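notes to self, project folder thing:

trying the whole complex as one job this time. last attempt i did each chain seperately and stitching them together was a nightmare. two parts in total, labels are on each line so i dont mix them up again. if this works i'll redo the older ones the same way
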Amino acid sequence: MEMLSWTGSLGTLLNPVATAHFIAFAVALVAQITMGFFAAEVKLQANTDGTLMKRGGALGLVENAVKWLFLVLVVVVVIYVVGGLLMPYGKAGIIGEMSKRFIPVWIALVATFTVSIIFKRKLGLYGKLFDSMIGMIGFTLVMFWVFTAIFVGVFDLIATHDPLSQISGLKNAKPGVALPEGSEELYANYLLGGDNLARDIFSRMVQGSVIVIMIAPLATIFAFMVGITLGLPAGYFGGRLDTILSFLANLILAFPVILLFYLLVTPEIVATGLPNYMASFLFIFPLVFFGVLINSRFYTQPKRNRVLLAVVLVPLAVVYLSVISQTGSPLHIWPAALDLIDIPGGILVVFVSVVFVNSPTVFRIVRGLALDIKTRDYVAAAQTRGEGTWYIMLWEILPNARGPLIVDFCLRIGYTTILLGTLGFFGLGLPPESPDWGSTINEGRKLLLIYVHPAMPPAIALLSMVLGLNLLADGLREESLKD
Amino acid sequence: MGLFILRRLGVMILTALCLTFIVFWLTNLFPNLEKLAKTQGNARMSDEAVVSWLENRGYSQPTLVKYGEWLGVLPGYVIEAADGTVRGRCAPSGTAPDDTTATFCGVLQGDWGQSTVFRDDVSSIIGTRLGLTGKLMGFVLLLMIPGALIIGVLAGMREGSRLDRSLSTVSIISTATPEYVSGVVFIAVFATGTFGMQWFKGTATSAMDDATFENIFLPVLTIALYGMGYIARMTRASMTEVMNAQFIRTARLKGVSFPNIVLKHALRNALIAPFTVIMLQFPWLLNGVVIVETLFNYKGFGWTLVQAASNNDIELLLGVSVVSVVVVLVTQLISDIGYVFLNPRIRIS
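result (full assembly):
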């Protein structure tokens, strides 16, 4: 096999067109923005034939040009992707081959969008997301990585090589390099080249998404559980409880995040078992949350209450105990035979420190929302009915605070992804051969001035994922403000 | 107002004490001390040797006592080792304490201790490094604050216009790009020949003595970009709120021209909220400084933090955390006080 170029035979025709288009688009955009400064506001004018007039003159022309050029640019990008799907192996270059590897993701994305758009009026806030362009772009980016993680992690589909296997001779090889003759690998090229240890960068990048998609949302959910369980009473009761909890939250927030990571994630501290004790404290909050949630609502029907509590709390308790108890750490309290989940030590430490850093912010947000909502009439009505305080907090205040919380949840997953990357960037927590994006950026930056290609794919992957979450949060905020 | 500041100062000192104690406790856990003993003494020390090494140097005292000594409220230890050497906390290393050595030597007395990595006084290391980081931060603020305010004001003055939408997208992109991503991309594009735009230097080591546009622009841009988006979004939100206010409508109805409305009526009122945000951004900037200084090999405060933390250099790490905690708390205090001064609607009795 010969080396692949970026765009293959598709590029000979399409590359000049795409470049010219891109330049035209950039010029038009700049022209539009500069002219926009001096232009008067658009006033709607009714013409005699009953139509409304848009902005005319040079600026109107440029605005139209920007719109059409942008559409054509999108079409060109789509041709690159679709062309790669249709052409035989190696003809459409690296971009085409990557697009072929992502076929399951494309199918899943198209299916999700078709179903969602058909039923969007019945899907509540999620459906409304498809009314906002920004929200849809964000959703696409996020779901792209979610599906990638699922297909790589569960079905073992997209990756071309094993993320840890090395092939000699491909150290720091350029993107599209062909495997040496006689190697037994099924796939004939390193699509994005080889890294410093001659591993396939493309496979490592898609494998990295599995780690990020696994840890970031879960850690954010835990942080929300902690923040909600502590923030609601702090805001609702106020007084000394609020003072103490707020002081503790500010204490953690005043800590420089990186210093905290360095202090918590070093092997010496891990050896003392401190992260395990912290995990046993932080992970108890979901149990408390669900216990109180069910009990406060159903305590008047003891039979149903007991059944529900047992159904929810027993599995959670088993999971809790098997997560915090680690063989070989000081906190080993659960028999190994019943240990369902064995989280590798590094991941647990990273998880705990990310939850620990995020929960005070969530606490502050929930506390602020609770302070605001507890003055509403429906809370007063519930108080007059004689509802319990926890019922009011969890079943009256919390559902009414969901809008801002959902938006913050999206933003916070993005922030957690950034934090995970920071940990990887400093080589903390996860093992150095781990393919997560932070660690691979850290690996790549060491030779960045000589070889650019190993660091770029994980950097762009991380950027697109966080950007997607931010856009998604923006779209959700816009749509939830409309009603 | 005076009482408010006093109370805030009290809370601040309490927070600082708690935080330094946490750092002290974490760095003084036994595995950390064991590592310290092995790096300082002999890598192949036996367990007993480690224990006696630590005992002779006062590390085996109770944590609270050690913390008190470090703080300077308890007298420094004087310990006689089994072989007869006498070591004192306040005596210079290698000499025995005599009548002239001070009883108290801690942070309160201005003695920050010795760095075990750099073999130098902690206070002098932190002084030089802070100066270098101060230089970097000065450039960052010069780029970030005007840039963010201009973007925010332009986006917020006509809500929903295309300019607003494109500038908002730019600020979302910049908040979604952590420093280690933008830094890597900038180095790849502007400091290597890959894309034919080798305009800047990929390391900022030379900027420590002699900062030129070529060697300091990329680190400055990297830090500034991440913070800029957030401040710009806050400015935009505040600007749109002001532009919808009654007094702006009155001004429009009076026939004041649009530029005059923006510059003379809206701008001052719209800049109150961003002020607090800028102040509260300092802790995040510290984060960015650590990443960027590591990435660009600029040996400032953030770089020192990484060195101290990865080598468990206890006294230096404590010094670094005191400084960073104080920076965070002081900016919080300034933002609170400034907010009260700027916003006539808030009065604290």
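what i see at first glance: The mean pLDDT of chain B is 85.
need to look closer tmrw
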